[in-house]
């Protein structure tokens, strides 16, 4: 499947398709609906990078990255990373999530970034194992009650 995966910006022509991307019901507590992410992208236009994930012409997911976000509110700690990731149920386990993470990492590298952050809601059935398998390590921080992970983009491992 991953040979045909691609990212496209969310536009007026595909916004309904993006909003229709839903995770499994048991995963809904771990990630906001796409419509919420798009509202946040509108409010945070300077840092939000929302993208629809297509497999051919079929929407299989949605991601939103944050790029150079003022993490500490003082302009001292600018961070980039994966803000949201929603993958449709029948595409989970097929490489869509890995493609999303690698795509965000590539964009951060393109902008000369060396670290990629992600946050997740802790809990049974949550995404922590997925992110840890991809090499994210715990920072020991919490952000709005969520666990913070970081991936070193200078290390090819």
Layout of helices and strands:
Layout: E1 5-9, H1 15-19, H2 34-43, E2 48-55, E3 58-70, E4 78-87, H3 96-110, E5 115-120, H4 128-133, E6 137-143, E7 146-152
Parallel strand pairs: 4-5
Antiparallel strand pairs: 1-2, 2-3, 3-4, 5-7, 6-7
Describe the model:
With about 160 residues, the protein is α+β, with helices and mostly antiparallel strands. Helix content is about 25%, strand content about 35%. The protein has four helices and seven strands. β6 and β7 form a beta hairpin. The mean pLDDT is about 95. Strands 1-2-3-4-5-7-6 form a seven-stranded mixed beta sheet, with helices on both faces. It starts with a strand and ends in a 5-residue tail after the last strand.
């Amino acid at each position: 499947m991953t040979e045909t995966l691609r990212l496209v910006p969310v536009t007026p022509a595909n916004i309904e398709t993006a909003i229709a991307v839903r995770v499994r019901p048991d995963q809904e507590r771990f990630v906001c609906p796409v419509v919420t992410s798009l509202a946040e992208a509108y409010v945070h236009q300077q840092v939000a990078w929302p993208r629809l994930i297509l497999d051919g012409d079929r929407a299989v997911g949605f991601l939103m990255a944050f790029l150079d976000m003022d993490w500490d509110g003082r302009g001292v700690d600018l961070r980039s990373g994966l803000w949201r990731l929603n993958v449709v149920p029948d595409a989970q386990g097929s490489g869509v999530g890995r493609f999303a993470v690698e795509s965000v990492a590539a964009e951060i590298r393109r902008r000369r970034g060396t670290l990629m952050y992600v946050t997740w809601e802790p809990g049974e059935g949550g995404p922590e194992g997925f992110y840890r398998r991809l090499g994210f390590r715990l920072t020991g921080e919490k952000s709005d009650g969520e666990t913070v992970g970081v991936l070193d983009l200078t290390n090819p491992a």
